């Protein structure tokens, strides 16, 4: 392909709209263009790379025995009512009406459509197990679309769904997808890591996320320094230190704390460590007020709270509710005397000699013995686990890193097969529910994650497997017929052996071509110029290296093919 025909206009400067490096580089190297917030067009160069990621995904899905299908993006809303998710998806789901005023949705995911399909297509144990997948456009009205393809309103997902006769069989299907994911990310040149994850609105019992470790990642990943424990911070657990032995606490005492509301202010005012404060937060769980208590130096993990309560919606209570429930202004809530359900973090079990809000304006309570003075409904794991906490699996210390979620595998159990009555006849002719799993890869997000993980100050460094082309062939003297002939011959030779070439035939200064070659970051740069040819040949340089080699033009194709010869792309599957 000739640069002059390829619709590539690179940008010299970082576009204002981009915050993270991969987004900047995708715009600068003419891979994508913004239509409006969260909506992007793929230019030819970007689309080539995207197709390569898709191809890897398809090859590995097929290898794992999954069958490709294609479901409509436009879905009738009744399916979502049937699963009970119409409300749970809330404003994230794009909804519209057809001309008959029938409510439709633009699919944010496809559990409903696929379960409905399989309910009709499969009726015997002989047809199971079955895993289907598609590579398709999804729509989500994200609260904050940002970072280019990372969090878009319209994006491409590979979604797969497994159907099995038993939990054991479903575990095998899950493992097959897990292993395929390991291979996919490895083949894309990514360093990805599987971590334990929350199951969110999709539901289900168990899940792993595949995370690309990068500072720009939106997810916090909690990892143990000593063992293999790794979990999304939304889900991460910790081991509790042994409870401190304390003596009897004198009776509760009111303390006047005018205008002192935040934990820091209270701790400073009362001259006590934040660990001796009981932080009380009021939430509305499916509209009903509940109190969550955590130690004063910790924050509530709302994902855990929502999951443990089995709530569809969870939000912080508004000022009016707080006033109504506690009788006080925001900042003075406490568990003593509250009549709503109270959930306390396990670390507060046996807490004595503590301070907490008094449910009275400008007042706190001291000498609180939680078990004695309040009606705790249940002790749960409620805090956001962070750096320095103890690993739940070993005595090691936890640390926190950032990650980009590129894939997610779920064990769904029978949540959807119950809702859709997805049954098969077993060997005895009895009807049983199928056991399901679902598996997503953000294909467009994966492509951008490659760049986030593989770039330098000059531009992208494409792993060969997903590079838009393999070689940037820089023709330095496009007006010189002889030099042009050498470059064109080399391009043709390379293309004949399957090496993809972008021939920079622009009438530009060499400096511009070198800069652009680094920016778009193809694995190899080959320079063909009058001076070089006179001195002995063409220059070959890998994007990853500063060194180049000079090779006679007629040997160049063979040398490049050698350099590109892929290392074995697939490592043996790893276990959980
Ligand atoms: P997130 O937590 O990032 O919002 P999610 O957990 O809602 O993602 P899933 O429903 O698990 O996402 O979707 C499967 C995959 O689709 C994710 O692992 C991610 O790679 C990708 N994905 C999800 N939302 C978006 C989006 N708005 N833009 C691009 N890719 C997305
Ligand atoms: Mg997810």
Report on this model:
With 576 residues, the chain is of the alpha+beta class. It has three domains: 3-236 and 399-452, BirA Bifunctional Protein, domain 2 (2-Layer Sandwich); 253-380, YbaK protein; 469-564, 3-Layer(aba) Sandwich (Rossmann fold), CATH 3.40.50. 28% of the residues lie in helices and 28% in strands. The protein contains 16 helices and 31 strands. Strands 3, 7, 8, 9, 10, 11, 12, 21 and 24 form a nine-stranded mixed sheet that branches. Helix 1 packs across helix 12 and helix 2 (44-63) packs across helix 12 (443-453). The protein is globular, with a radius of gyration of 29 Å. The model is unreliable at 568-576 (pLDDT under 50). Bound molecules: adenosine-5'-triphosphate (ATP) and magnesium ion (MG). Magnesium ion binds next to strand 21.
List keywords for this structure.
28% strand; 9-stranded mixed sheet; binds magnesium ion; BirA Bifunctional Protein, domain 2; binds adenosine-5'-triphosphate; 16 helices; 576 residues; Rossmann fold; alpha+beta
Helix coverage percent: 25-40%
CA radius of gyration is 29 Å
CATH architecture of the largest domain: 2-Layer Sandwich
What's the CATH topology name of the largest domain?
Answer: BirA Bifunctional Protein, domain 2
Which cofactor or ligand species appear? Answer: adenosine-5'-triphosphate, magnesium ion
Query: How many β-strand runs?
Result: 31
Major sheet characteristics:
9 strands, mixed
Fraction of residues in β-strands: 25-35%
How many domains would you count in the coordinates? 3
